[in-house]
Amino acid sequence: MTTGIFGAIGAGLCAIGAGLGIGKIGASALESMARQPEAAGKIQSAMILSAALIEATALFGVVVSLMSLSA
Amino acid sequence: MAQKLLLVLFFTLGFYNLYASDAVSEEGKIDQTAFIMGHIRDSHSFHICDIDGHAVGVSLPVILWSEGKLVTFMSGEFHHDTEGHHVVEKDGQRFVLYFDGFNEKVYKATDEAQEDGSYLLRDENGKVISETPLDFSITKNVVTLIMVVVAMLAIFVTMGAFYRKKSNVAKAPRGIASLFEPLVIYIRDEIALPNIGEKHYKKYTPYLLTLFFFVMFTNLFGLIPFFPFGANISGNTSYSMALALLTFIIVQFSGTKAYWKEIVSMPGVPKPVMLILAPVEFLGLFTKPFALTIRLFAAIMGGHIIILSLLLLIFMFKMWVVVPASGIFISFMYLIEILVAVIQAYIFTLLTALYIGMAKVEEHEHH
User: Fold this and answer.
1) Of A45, A59, A70, the CB nearest to B33
2) Is residue B77 located within the same domain as residue B194?
3) Does pTM top 0.95 for this prediction?
4) DSSP character for B119?
5) Per-domain residue ranges for chain A?
6) How many domains would you assign to chain B?
7) Which of chain B's residues have a Cβ under 8 Å away from the Cβ of A44?
8) Cα(B168)–Cα(B172) distance, rounded to whole angstroms?
9) Structural domain of residue B131, as residue ranges?
10) Domain boundaries A2-70, corresponding CATH code
């Protein structure tokens, strides 16, 4: 039972971290798109790429907490 | 109207699955973890629904290589037992099926039943230590993979036939070709060309296209919630690891001299720093495909788990108010999952292109 609770807390922490990271990327991408609308396409693909990299770390956490949940 | 009816059918069909036999106890209580794991795992039979507590499903062939002999039988002979109770005897060998919460595996059965009624050897922690035969079974995931292959062949062979016709050269694409041409062009011009470079991109575009469409189709097939679909293939590490391994091999074999030089001894870096940097760079070779594996697998598996958890809310609260709320949430999650299915395919392709581009570095001039 306790491992289950810790697993859930871990998953929540992952969500916080990833949310902060992706939020920051989104904010700065929007800012730079507003400054340079002509570069919007390039900024967008760079944004998705870095969001994917951050998402991966969050997903690592999710997998680990899932494993602790069922262990 | 017909569309709406179809939509209702679409969602209610998924609900039938809820009575997955081993997750429901006698009092009608649902073991949530068992229920969710039972749905996202690979399985030796294709479970469709339960009628009056009896599982209805399609039996799939079990193909085993055991003690130098090929043993085959249909999974129906296990009688939906995943606890290791029902022994199947074939060619003088005995097998049981056991689901440990993560994987469903065929084990060699012991001669006599153990204390818990199963035919499995366990260590002191209750972990199963029975021998497993080599398993080449056509499981649920394999069936879905075959379906994806057939669907892709049907689509892309017809599409290719359109372009092969000489009279079509100057015409705008029609039919299925007009649906997929923008995607193909996008991958060539926005993923392959900028990341790999003008010199080499043509050689790698076919691989990137295959990767993108294969991942996209398996993801989307996994989201359709009724019978011949709905297997969680891309949420399975074997699937994503196989794709990541392919990428890994292709990247290493397209590495230039400069690429290997940058790993072994990065130019312009002092010798003592090299001692730390070289092992890190070497590890980096393997963390890249590892991250690819986990990203795809966890994103898709996570989506399936969230949808099932939202569905389970109804059975946890047992109040009618929760039903529409959960339905709305599930529909919303489904839309997000469709987005994720395509984005994950895009990211896998993009990162593969990026890694190939990194392996194709030219020798720099250093002053």
Assistant:
1) A70
2) no
3) no
4) S
5) 2-70
6) 2
7) none
8) 8
9) 61-137
10) 1.20.20.10
pLDDT in tens, B174-219: 778 888 888 999 999 988 898 888 888 889 999 999 999 999 999 9
ipTM of the complex: 0.74
Q: Which residues pair with B107 in a beta bridge?
A: B96
Evaluate whether residue B250 is within a structural domain: yes
Which residue of B37, B294, B350 is in closest CB contact with A63? B294
Residue B158 counted as domain residue: yes
Instruction: Please check whether residues B202 and B304 belong to one and the same domain.
Output: yes
Q: Are residues B83 and B210 in the same domain?
A: no
Nearest chain B residue (CA) to A47: B347
pLDDT in tens, B45-103: 777 777 776 777 777 888 888 777 787 778 777 777 777 777 777 777 778 888 776 77
Can you give the pLDDT at residue B242? 92
Which residue in A has a C-alpha nearest to residue B33's C-alpha?
Answer: A70
The percent of chain B in helix, strand and coil, each rounded to the nearest 5, is: 60, 15, 30
Q: Scanning every residue of chain B, which has its alpha carbon at the shortest distance from the alpha carbon of A60? A: B294
Q: How many CB pairs under 8 A join A and B?
A: 38
Give A-chain residues touching B299 at CB under 8 angstroms: 55, 59
- Same domain for B202 and B309, yes or no, is yes
Based on the fold, state whether residues B168 and B191 are members of the same structural domain: yes
A70 contacts B295? CB cut-off 8 A: no
Q: Tell me what pLDDT residue B22 has.
A: 52
Number of neighbouring beta carbons within 10 Å of residue B357: 19
Beta carbons of A52 and B347 less than 8 Å apart:
yes
Cβ proximity of B78 and B86 under 8 Å: yes
Asked if residues B366 and B267 have their Cβ atoms less than 8 Å apart, the reply is yes
